[in-house]
Amino acid sequence: VPPEKVEKAMDEVEKYIMTRQYKYVFCPETTDDEKKDLAVQKRIRALHWVTPQMLCVPVSEEIPEVSDMVVKAITDIIEMDSKRVPRDKLACITKCSKHIFNAIKITKNEPASADDFLPTLIYIVLKGNPPRLQSNIQYITRFCNPSRLMTGEDGYYFTNLCCAVAFIEKLDAQSLNLSQEDFDRFMTGQTSPKKQESDSFSPDVCLGVKQMCKSLDLLSQLNERQERIVSEAKKLEKDLIDWTDGITKEVQDIVEKYPLEIKAKSQALAAIDSENVENDKLPPPLQPQVYAG
Q1: Domain boundaries, the chain
Q2: Region (Disordered) spans which residues (predicted)?
Q3: From 1, 56, 69, 256, which residue has the greatest number of CB atoms within 10 Å?
């Protein structure tokens, strides 16, 4: 049997099985894929301030064609999560990568190199923040036809995506040629590179451009403030729940330690004027006296 037919038959079997078993084998509860997804998503969200210049990305989004390629690349990498078959997910990565190569080629007017591709892929991942990224990578690794991951352009692009995610997870000040102080300030939201760039505008820059940069910086600050407020609100909610649970537990411990005992009703005391032998020792009652006025 020709290798091409064997490959095609394996693809059809993979499609048939994985389409029907997808909900059972994608991000299963027995793994920590979901935990990794949340960690990567949070990490990428915290790195929203990273600029193409910091990553040495050879792409100019000011060129309309390049901007369209960047949008298509982001769309493809996000669309990966909607596919069920490993081969289809891998195809999304390949399409994304080809759009990246085209964007670099248009910007530089020459074929892109591997050194140009990886930084741009990292930038695309940071800008797109694809959903369930780690789960999709693990799903492809576990169930995709091994020959596709070992050879060919699909395997090459997939390997670069894994490298991009690993770089993002370990990204630090040295990776971006920043001082540790600036890196910490950017990560905590105290300032942003865009604000520093807007402060360094030359007097010849158009007033509209300055105003636009200020507006973008303001929106960025408002977004960071909103994220901090949401984070603090969730923390407050958790503290209130913990406090309520703690009070409830203390009350239960006290009730168990000092149980409430209801005693039987004691016999009522005899009234003073009732017929009682012990009342003989009481002084005689006062008699009303009438005085003539």
Answers
A1: 3-191, 206-250
A2: 274-293
A3: 69
Cβ-contact 107, 83 below 8 angstroms: no
Q: Are 139 and 147 in contact (CB under 8 A)?
A: no
Residues 179/185, Cβ–Cβ less than 8 Å: no
Distance from C-alpha of 10 to C-alpha of 86, rounded to nearest angstrom: 12
27: left (phi over 0), alpha (psi -120 to 50) or beta: left
Lowest mean pLDDT segment, chosen from 22-36, 48-62, 162-176, 177-191? 177-191
Residue count of the chain:
293
Q: Tell me, what's the pLDDT at 94?
A: 96
- The two tokens of residue 120 are 């741009």
Report phi then psi at 84, rounded to 5.
-105, -35
Question: Per the structure block, which two tokens stand in for 278?
Answer: 């012990």
Angle at 111 between CA 107 and CA 114, to 5 degrees: 100
For residues 140 and 86, the answer to whether their CB atoms sit within 8 Å is yes
pLDDT per residue as tens digits for the range 198-231: 444 555 556 676 677 767 777 877 777 788 788 8
CB-based contact 79:12 (threshold 8 Å) = no
- State the pTM of this model: 0.66
CATH architecture label of 3-191: Up-down Bundle (1.20)
Note the helical H segments in the chain.
Answer: 3-25, 33-46, 64-79, 86-108, 114-128, 133-143, 146-150, 152-170, 180-188, 193-199, 207-257
Based on the number of CB atoms within 10 Å of its own CB, is 69 exposed (0-12), middle (13-18) or buried (19 or more)? buried
Q: Which two tokens stand for residue 214?
A: 């200020």
Distance of alpha carbon 31 from alpha carbon 231, whole angstroms = 27
Which residues neighbour 88 within 8 Å (Cβ) at sequence distance 6 or greater?
none
